Amino acid sequence: MTAIDTSARLAIDGGTPIRTRPFAPNCHIGGRERELLLDALESCNWSGFRAGAGANVRDLCATPSSIARDLHDVRYLGGRYVRLLESMFAARTRTTFAIGCNSATSGLVMAFGAIGLEPGDEVLVPCMSFHATATAILAFQAVPVFVEVDPHSFCIDPRDGALKITPRTRAIVAVHLGGIPADMRAIVELARRHDLKVIEDCAQSLGARIDGVEVGAIGDAGVYSLTETKSITCGEGGVVVTNDPRIAIKSRLIRNHGEGAADESWGDDELANVVGMNFRLTELQAAVAVAQFEQLDERNEVRNENANALIEGLRPFPQFVPQQLAANAERACYMPKFRYVSGASMPSRDELVRILAAEGIPLVAGYPRLLHENPIFTRRIAYGTRGAPFNDSAVRYGTGTCPRSEALNRELLWFPLVNPPNTTDDMRDVVRAIEKVFS
Ligand SMILES: Cc1ncc(COP(=O)(O)O)c(C=O)c1O
Question: Do residue 330 and residue 370 come from a single domain?
């Protein structure tokens, strides 16, 4: 009996899958992680932080990261690996201050608190992001106002932002989604015209640049993530960078129970928004993060090469429209994103994801909901059950309020595993599976 060749039949219909070997997960050891972790472990100084540093806490918190690295016994600013990591971030981004913390979510809270948000203030936020970009604003009883994203870059559309400015608007958040920089020229220009602070959410874009400048160093503050899916990781962690000493001081105070370090001489501005947080990064995490940071360029190069292999491989299929990079920008690919514009007789986006999953290719079908569609906003239930902090706000949420981004999200697809040690050969399998579907 002749064996039937099942290789051309789709795996979902009983054919042979393109791939049975899983792609490598993001978290992998590529440098000195073991050595530095063991060093931190054996130091028996696993946190290094202490709260309530006494009278000189304000001066300490104004110390540039390049100097803080070499200070001895400054326990308010954390241990030596935390300060080493911070000095590395500051040097790379050419900022004066880098402040490590236990997640980018905490870093966003620090940054929003440090720019002095007041209850009822409005902050412009792209509606397409991870939800922490918006919920960190709520921590100070301020209110996110969601803005459409640009259909090419998938990052905040500054023209829609301009339409949503009110007398209450205080800040604008740029999320460099997927490692593609947002249009910072237009955002900074808009912010200047309306006296707004600019926070860059760089959780997905460590190492990306605009006109040669690292993202995070362009606005008033930038926030990076070190969680496990990101380009470098220590399990969980985050870093805030800024050139503004007022933002640095307050971020450091928010990170480490600053209210306990305050005395009667502090002004109201100094006390404001410093309420009871512990966002410290441990020495064990910081040691791993230092080792990973040493590999950042190498890792970003692999990610970019893999993303380019996918984009090139899918070029013959015009139904896949890649997220676009501006001519003056350099990407640090996090996960390559595409619009899937399905034509007649093509599978729908969600069918395609199922077909490819059967072929051994895990693609992600957009966000389950955009930020403005989350119940915390649509039902206006954040703190308590009586509408705080939205009671006083005319901001509208819900499906239909950012229709262009909602349409984009219905077409959105991304491939999450361009990280090393996956290679362009692995990406070839993704392309082969797509060729199989559309041939
Ligand atoms: C755009 C964006 N902002 C913020 C965060 C929050 O980061 P973390 O998990 O470090 O709190 C993430 C991701 O996890 C993110 O992708």
Answer: yes
CATH of the domain at 360: 3.90.1150.10
Domain residues for the domain of 144 are 33-293
Best probe residue, ligand 1, of 27, 105, 205, 233 (max atoms within 8 Å of C-beta) = 105
Question: Helices (DSSP H) in 115-244: which residue ranges?
Answer: 132-138, 158-163, 184-194
Cα of 124 to ligand 1 centre, how many Å? 17
Both 282 and 310 in a single domain? no
Q: How far is the CA of 94 from the centre of ligand 1 (A)?
A: 22
Q: Does residue 100 line the site of ligand 1, with CB under 6 A? A: no
Could you give the number of structural domains in the chain? 2
10 found inside a domain: no
Using an 8 Å Cβ cutoff, are 388 and 141 in contact?
yes
The whole-angstrom separation of Cα 400 and Cα 404 is 9
| Ligand 1 pocket, residue 204 CB under 6 Å | yes
Q: Is 238 in the pocket of ligand 1 (CB under 6 A)?
A: yes
| Cβ 102 under 6 angstroms from ligand 1 | no
Q: Residue 406 C-alpha to ligand 1 middle, in angstroms?
A: 21
Instruction: Decide which of 255, 274, 293 is a domain's last residue.
Output: 293
Do both 227 and 365 map to the same domain?
Answer: no
Domain boundary among 259, 293, 327: 293
Distance CA 367, CA 413 (A): 9
Residues near 26 by Cβ (< 8 Å), separated by ≥ 6?
228, 229, 230, 233, 417, 419
* pLDDT tens digits, one per residue of 165-218: 999 999 999 999 999 999 999 999 999 999 999 999 999 999 999 999 999 999
Q: Which atom of ligand 1 is nearest to the CA of 227?
A: 10
Q: Is the pLDDT of residue 55 over 70?
A: no
The dihedrals phi and psi of 310, each to the nearest 5 degrees, come to -70, -45
